[in-house]
Write a structure and sequence with these properties.
7-stranded parallel sheet; Rossmann fold; 15 helices; alpha/beta; 428 residues
Length: 428
């Protein structure tokens, strides 16, 4: 089915053609017609399915002929990266239309965002926390809002944004068309949809979470302390031209990136402790090819969209199967193909089995020829938690012992009085 069959505005069809899209993905084909008809939409859509265009295209179509100067659409997202990516997609799709958009998220100045409110851009793409910061000011009113999108709703739930979402809703008109997209539909999300949606068109709700069909998945068993060396070997062998690599913690991301750079591999990292400017530069450098490897934590798993990304590497096995789905969904986007490699230490086999149950199959194990699996590790990326706690306790115990010894030490004898003569008097 071609895009022209969806009866979208010619200006949008022109932009879609220039972007190289000939036919809609399944989620787009299912969601766009009821959205154009004015219905609320509740869709269960996996990462990389083309869901962003599934809600942007009907909104853009409905806004093209409307007067400018009033914000009529709001898209709520969990992360800064996702907000920036949605705005970029909006600008690409709307390139031949007069529609304007702006992103509202933390880590950057509020001035340009305030200007977007005051001028009434057509579409705001926002994270809940920064949006609520603006709502404290009198300029941030949205009385003309007609369309609301909750994107990655389950991720917002995971990040604790549910109270913020409810507070945001109190600032919005009750009469509106709502689009609700989530990769999974846990009970709290079901409750929220009942509050927000009126007779929605329900799409893919029976679908179980699974990676995209075009993803080739493989598992690389390896000792925890040899993961860095194995990843370097795969990169230097030419197994991967570029790779998005996920670690469990920010500290591991920092140390892995430093290790790769030391090995002569151009790498950068992206996580919550980095400034917005640093995160933007890292992602832009990865997209442009400046960096061959981008090391990330899960905060970025649903906000990184790299065209034709060939490889995703789980340096650490995610503890939740859904996180695995979203990580590997960064490749094979929009029905393309890609590879997802997972480095699995013996102590991570339990998490791997949970992932295999979720995806419904055993993932193939791969052993790299000529890699020395018995090599002496060069060092650890991270001291295990038990060891760190033991070291902290030992240090505190030593400090207490020193303080006690100091307190019990006998007081020193008083200094004898000075026998120096007072100034101005001679000794007599």
């Amino acid at each position: 089915m071609p895009f022209s069959s969806l009866k979208l505005h010619p200006s949008l069809l022109k932009g879609i053609k220039e972007l190289g899209f000939a036919r809609p993905t399944p989620i787009q084909a299912d969601a766009i017609p009821p959205a154009l008809a004015g219905r609320d939409v509740l869709a269960c859509a996996m990462t990389g399915s083309g869901k962003t265009a599934a809600f942007l295209l009907p909104i853009l179509h409905l806004l093209i002929e409307r007067p400018r100067g009033t914000t009529r659409a709001l898209v709520l997202t969990p992360t800064r990266e996702l907000a920036a990516q949605i705005l970029e997609d909006l600008n690409d799709l709307a390139v031949h239309t007069p529609i304007t958009g702006a992103a509202v998220f933390g880590g950057v100045g509020m001035g340009p965002q305030e200007h977007a409110f005051r001028t009434g851009v057509d579409v705001l793409v926002a994270t809940p926390g920064r949006l609520l910061d603006h709502f404290k000011a009198p300029y941030a009113k949205l009385p003309g809002l007609e369309y609301l999108v909750l994107d990655e709703a389950d991720r917002m739930l995971d990040m604790g944004f549910l109270p913020e979402i409810r507070r945001v809703l109190r600032h919005l008109p009750a009469r509106r068309q709502t689009f609700f997209f989530s990769a999974t539909i846990p009970p709290p999300i079901v409750a929220l949809t009942r509050e927000m949606l009126r007779d929605p068109a329900m799409i893919n709700l029976e679908r179980s979470a699974a990676p995209a069909v075009g993803i080739t998945q493989a598992v690389y068993p390896v000792a925890q302390e040899l993961k860095s060396a194995l990843l370097t070997s795969l990169l230097k062998r030419g197994e991967m031209d570029e790779a998005l690599v996920f670690t469990r913690t920010k500290h591991r991301a920092n140390r892995l990136q430093a290790y790769l750079v030391k090995q002569g591999i151009k790498a950068e990292r992206i996580h919550g402790n980095r400034s917005q400017a640093q995160r933007t530069e890292a992602l832009a450098g990865f997209k442009s090819g400046k960096y061959r490897v981008l090391v990330a934590t899960d905060i970025a798993a649903r906000g990184i969209d790299v065209e034709a990304l060939g490889h995703v590497v789980n340096f650490d096995v995610p503890t939740v199967p859904d996180d695995y789905i979203h990580r590997v969904g960064r490749t094979a986007r929009a029905e393309a193909t890609g590879d997802a490699f997972t480095l699995v230490a013996p102590e991570e086999e339990g998490e791997l089995r949970a992932i295999e149950r979720a995806v419904g199959k055993r993932l193939p194990r791969v052993t790299v020829p000529d890699f020395d699996y018995g090599a002496r590790p060069e060092g650890r990326l991270e001291v295990p938690l038990a060891e760190r706690i033991a070291a902290i306790r030992a240090r505190k115990s030593e400090e207490r012992a020193r303080a006690k010894a100091k307190a019990e030490r006998p007081a020193s004898s008083p200094r004898p009085p000075s026998r120096r003569p007072q100034r101005g008097r001679r000794p007599g």
